[in-house]
Amino acid sequence: MISGIPLCQMVITIKPRKGHMNKPLSQPLFRHPDLVVAPCKLGHGVFATQRIPADTTLEECYHLRIRKEDCSGIIDDYVYRISEDEDGSQESSDCYSLPLGCGSIFNHSDEHNTEYWHDTERDLIVFYTIKDVSAGEQLFINYGKDWWETRDCTPENDK
Fold first, then answer.
1. What are the beta bridge partners of residue 91?
2. Which domain holds residue 83?
């Protein structure tokens, strides 16, 4: 506990991979031109302005590493666990990750259309589509059941 605020209990794990679909990653950081942040029932969300096919990189995000002992309050809802090995089994022992860009704005859905991974070579979080996304459709990730259980609540999908 820090000043009476419990430490965060992050439950999203980012599994690292060397490259998505064997495609070279762009330099500098990439953000898909057809993404927009807009209001939704849950506050704000990430939306596609045009059709985006499956297996398309959406954004490469820098991220801030935050020491676990410094993680408290509202930041708890936005940090991710990061893994330093290929299969995602070796969670970082001392810090969480706070993705920048759209990385902290993706909402949850059990029927998510977006996933992410930790590019360990460049130390970036990369978001990509796993399904075709229609123009106007919101992009969702899956927070995982532990995220909801640690907050004693259930997902509120914004479909």
1. 83
2. 13-149
Give me the percent of the chain exceeding a pLDDT of 90: 40
Distance, CA of 149 to CA of 25 (rounded, Å):
35
**CA dist., res. 156 & res. 159, Å (int):** 9
pLDDT tens-digit profile of 56-104? 999 999 998 888 788 777 777 777 777 666 555 666 667 888 899 999 9
Does residue 4 lie within any of the structural domains?
Answer: no
CA–CA distance, 66 with 81 (Å, rounded to integer) = 10
Three-class DSSP category at 149: helix
Q: List the CATH number of the domain containing 95.
A: 2.170.270.10
Judge whether 5 lies within some domain. no
pLDDT tens digits for 35-47?
999 999 989 999 9
**In angstroms, rounded to a whole number, what is the distance separating the alpha carbons of residues 38 and 40?**
7
Q: Would you state the structure tokens that stand for residue 132, as one six-digit string?
A: 């075709």
